[in-house]
Amino acid sequence: MGRLSDQVVAQLRQAIVHEEYAPGSRMPTAESLAESLGVSRSVVRDALRTLSSMGLVEVRQGHGIFVAVPRDDILTTALTLRMQRSDVTIGEVLAARVTLESTLAAEAARVRDDETLRPLRGHLRRFEDGVRAKDWPTAHQEHLQFHLSIIRALRLPALELLIEPLQELIIVSSIPPEPESGEQWGIGSHDPIVEALESGDPEAARTAVRDHFRYAESPPYREYGQTPFRDVRSVLAGLR
């Protein structure tokens, strides 16, 4: 049997996951929890620290203990840190994206749903307008949303939950080597993807995504692709 605080963590985590304590709600005090669980307050405090590090509770000094509202950024931060501590390069992230996004685009074309595909053109238009206006934060965000909309078009909530925390990786690998160069943002290169999706042609969608990513084979990107993932954060900061 594990430490007593680990057992308390397991009990409280189960209660939170099953929404016995609703997101955003105030939990009982540490003293009340200790009494109801039959443990000491120090055990409860240890458990709360663990639950806080998991992003499940927020301990607000002077106000109490609150159930955290689910947030993607906690998982995204953990995944980003894991990538930063590896030797993975931007080129390797892009290669993974090609495999993932070409497969997802083919499936989105197969199940073609005009309603869920409609946002694609809006994101694409705002992305291109942002590039032309040299509004890099808008261009950057709409570019991201364009690619995420392909995932959302599948109408698979579980897949969205699994993949959307990868946004940070998508964001970083989508930044051109020279972020303020309009040419490197690839205006027009996304149109074949949208056309293939709207036509419901899976193989055309798969090919269009792979063709879109061929920009990574150009000389500026080949050099940029060798950049370790951990070294591109300063570029990202400049786009926010």
Keywords:
Arc Repressor Mutant, subunit A, two-stranded antiparallel ribbon, elongated, Four Helix Bundle (Hemerythrin (Met), subunit A), 2 domains, mainly alpha, 2 strands, 240 residues, 13 helices
Number of strands: 2
The secondary-structure element order is HHHEEHHHHHHHHHH
Globular, elongated, flat, extended or rod-shaped: what is the shape? elongated
Low-confidence stretches: none
Architecture of the largest domain in CATH? Answer: Up-down Bundle
- Average predicted confidence as pLDDT: 87
Number of helices: 13
Sheet with most strands: 2 strands, antiparallel
Rg is 22 Å
| Helix/strand class | mainly alpha
Summed up, the domain count is 2
Spatial order of strands in the largest sheet? 1-2
CATH fold assignment of the largest domain: Four Helix Bundle (Hemerythrin (Met), subunit A)
Beta-strand residue fraction = under 5%
* Helix content percent band: 55-70%
CATH superfamily of the largest domain: GntR ligand-binding domain-like
End-to-end gap: 48 Å
- Quick one: CATH class of the largest domain? Mainly Alpha
What report would you give on this structure?
This protein is mainly alpha-helical. The chain has two domains: 4-67, Arc Repressor Mutant, subunit A (Orthogonal Bundle); 73-238, GntR ligand-binding domain-like (Four Helix Bundle (Hemerythrin (Met), subunit A), Up-down Bundle), CATH 1.20.120. It has 13 helices and two strands; from the N terminus they run αααββαααααααααα. Strands 1-2 form a two-stranded antiparallel ribbon. A hairpin with a 3-residue loop joins strand 1 (57-60) and strand 2. The mean pLDDT is 87. Keywords: DNA-binding, Pyruvate, Transcription, Transcription regulation. Pfam families: FCD, GntR.
